[in-house]
Specification:
Layout (H helix, E strand, L loop, with lengths): L33 H6 L8 E5 L5 E5 L6 H16 L9 H11 L16
Antiparallel strand pairs: 1-2
């Protein structure tokens, strides 16, 4: 069996399933419950995405600012696949995690820097 993943100080640990409720107003608006806001790390003015499943269930997630429409489609695909086949989701083993950390050690990444157009 794989060891449980260790959270970083920026991750929020959420139980596998949380059921919360809110009410629609006459204008079809609702307040996102505090537990959902915390789990998704939502702030004021953040955008959220609704993925409506074939069985009527809805996956709600924070929308990342991304100019790449393919990324959003891929993430939607992953969300649907995980929802349809949760038994396939497993933690990576400790040896692979150590190897990935070793490979990335010392690599500096500026997530705010613009990409080089020649490299795109």
């Amino acid at each position: 069996m794989f060891p449980a993943p260790t959270p970083s100080d920026r991750e929020v640990i959420v139980p596998a399933t949380v059921e919360l409720e809110s009410t629609l107003t006459d204008r079809y608006q609702t307040t996102v419950p505090d537990g959902v806001r915390r789990a998704l790390k939502l702030r004021k003015r953040d955008r959220i995405r609704y993925l409506v499943q074939g069985d009527g269930s809805v996956v709600l997630r924070r929308t990342e600012d991304a100019d790449d429409p393919v990324l959003g489609s891929f993430l939607d695909f992953l969300a649907r696949d995980i929802a349809a086949h949760p038994r396939h989701v497993r933690a990576i083993n400790a040896g692979l995690a150590r190897r990935m950390r070793a490979l990335a050690k010392g690599v500096k990444v500026d997530l705010e820097a613009a990409l080089d157009p020649a490299g795109e």
